[in-house]
Design goal:
Polyprenyl synthetase (chains A, B), prenyltransferase activity (chains A, B), Farnesyl Diphosphate Synthase, 2 strands, about 375 residues, homodimer, Isoprenoid_synthase_dom_sf (chains A, B), two-stranded antiparallel ribbon
């Protein structure tokens, strides 16, 4: 654990129990440097395992997967790699370390790679279903290799993930595989709900539905990552469940912040145009909360969301700005920020249950704050 | 094992070692009744496990899966079920029984269900990729529920398969899960090669490529089914490998016969129009063997395959009949039948290696003959 620590003072999970934690992290000592170091360290530990698994694929699927992970260009030449931030494997390792010390962290490297493989399998398939053309600043795999190869590469990554665990002699690997497979089913259910909601009118979608979808689509795998780390640390069932809850609640907080950024994010920082989610009429959490508010602004928002946005029609983003203002006036922004703080508070409670000593919880805490503290 | 046996005399695997076995099974005592009884018994044992797994899925994917398995109509009302012939789970159980007796057969029921779940996951995805509109005499799942739901249901079935094994306390379950996951990668590679070959000119495809593709796409899962049965019987590595080889070779024999039926099958028996595979210019094994023969008929076949078939253009199937004749004259039919007999002979050799006593091999033998003895 010691080598995970930087010199910065740790926020105690006990101290955050009284609510509101995470929302004001910007003022605290957790300036993201510890998380950045953790993520870098995770990449160094997990990438060789991950890369060996991908390299074991037969030619065709190896090529698609190496491209997807950013390790190869379309023409097969080596690329610097931009395989995402490795939040999920970092959570596996941090959870293992929190409950079992440095030895458990090293033992959990395969489990961390398995979680990252599952995450990337879902990205490959979701991009096909959602017809998304860009991922990590590059054309998505299906746009380059076609639907069939992107589907097959995703199928193979799921198989690789479960093979990694099945081949791992660690005593927790069986329970971890069962949990990860169960999580895949939940991820699929979340993606189904998401695609089905796209086809429904905005006022037919309830906030509870969107929260449940977000928990399944985003929270489940973050929870599973933490639970796998706990399993590899030999933790008791109660602590495994608590770590799962920590990851789920942190995941929901992350989604809420992400949705706020999708509306009010600074294009300079997000790399997306302002109000990108509003332009595609995304039923994100702040929007659905605003629609359900019963305010005059909700009625205005419903009218705007009732017809597709046509770029430039209302003159340089005027309509988008009006839509964002309606969400804000209807209370969608305040609700999302308060809800994110509540979820972080719940996450801290779960964490404190399983890891009462603040000095052991530092890594998990730093990661949770890292994913939720991104400023708008 | 005893309850598997009917009163019919068994062909000894030892007696078939000298080659040519399987090709003339029609004259033998294995008239398919034993295999039919085995398949029915398998359904009775495995269906409850399979159905419980599918019923555990969240609503949306459960609906797609229940429809795909033939257990529900599109509207969700119960259907009689037409979930295929259960060849693969029957092979798991028969292999377990051959190497470990009736106790191993019962212990292997979860593994049998897992193999059937993987088979159906690949069917769901293959139908999406190949745009096939009919499966088991019903519209395919993607035509009814859309691509996204068919992809998600397939993803979930793969996860269910590996979860079944991960949750199985049997000492062989970990090794079985690793083997099944490995097989999924091979199945994906086979499907990739198949879809990629569709886009190439017939004379660019070699016979070795088509044989390798058929082994990956069809042989691998039949081999894996037998290997899982052996693992659950506590067999040594050598016997597991032999059983895998038996299933693979029998699977290739099956594919060869299936390809012959796809050209010369009786429409009354196959339910497909005569020469169905020729009409879609399928690069099946007899066709590719014929094209590679260097005969004048090969040149005629290449010319016919060089342009798409337009129904009725050459008058009521005249062109299809001419194409079938060219394949036959170029030796494609004879080659496929001889190759099928050779593969069955190899399968018998592998089987005899692991299961020397004929009375123990009866179930596997009956199943292998059942899948390959279908007359044209």
């Amino acid at each position: 654990m010691a080598e995970f620590m930087t010199g910065t003072k740790q926020r105690s999970p006990g101290a955050t129990r009284s609510g509101g934690a995470g929302g004001d992290a910007g003022a605290g000592p957790l300036d993201g440097q510890e998380a950045a170091a953790l993520l870098e360290r995770t990449r160094a530990l997990v990438d060789p395992e991950l890369r060996a698994a991908v390299e074991s694929l037969p030619g065709s699927m190896r090529r698609v997967a190496l491209y997807h992970f950013g390790w190869e260009h379309v023409d097969g030449s080596p690329a610097a790699g931009n395989a995402g931030k490795a939040i999920r494997p970092a959570l596996v390792l941090a959870a293992a370390a929190a409950l079992g010390g440095p030895g458990a962290r090293v033992a959990a490297v395969r489990a961390a790679a398995a979680v990252e493989l599952v995450h990337n399998f879902t990205l490959l398939h979701d991009d096909v279903m959602d017809r998304d053309t860009s991922r990590r600043h590059r054309p998505t795999a299906w746009t380059v290799f076609g639907d069939a190869d992107a589907i097959l590469a995703g199928d193979a990554l799921q198989a690789l993930a479960l093979r990694l665990l099945a081949e791992d002699p660690h005593p927790a690997s069986g329970a971890a595989a069962a949990r990860l497979a169960d999580c895949v089913v939940e991820l699929c259910a979340g993606q189904h709900t998401d695609t089905a909601m796209e086809l429904r009118a905005p006022d037919e979608v309830t906030l509870d539905e969107v929260l449940a979808m977000s928990e399944a689509k985003t929270g489940a795998l973050l929870g599973c990552a933490c639970a796998l780390g706990a399993l590899y640390a030999g933790a008791c069932d109660e602590d495994v469940v608590a770590l799962d809850g920590f990851g789920r609640q942190a995941g929901l907080a992350f989604q809420l912040i992400d949705d706020v950024i999708g509306i009010w994010g600074d294009p300079q920082r997000t790399g997306k145009p302002a109000g990108a989610d509003l332009a595609v009429r995304k039923k994100s959490l702040p929007v659905v909360a605003a629609l359900a508010s019963g305010t005059p602004a909700a009625a205005e928002l419903a009218a705007l969301y009732g017809k597709p946005y046509v770029k430039g029609e209302a003159g340089d983003g005027g309509e988008i700005a009006r839509t964002a203002l309606a969400v804000e006036r209807a209370g969608g922004r305040d609700w999302a920020q308060a809800e994110a703080a509540d979820r972080m508070s719940l996450a801290m409670q779960e964490l404190a249950r399983a890891v009462p000593a603040p000095e052991d919880a530092g890594g998990l805490l730093a990661l949770a704050e890292f994913v939720t503290r991104r400023t708008v």
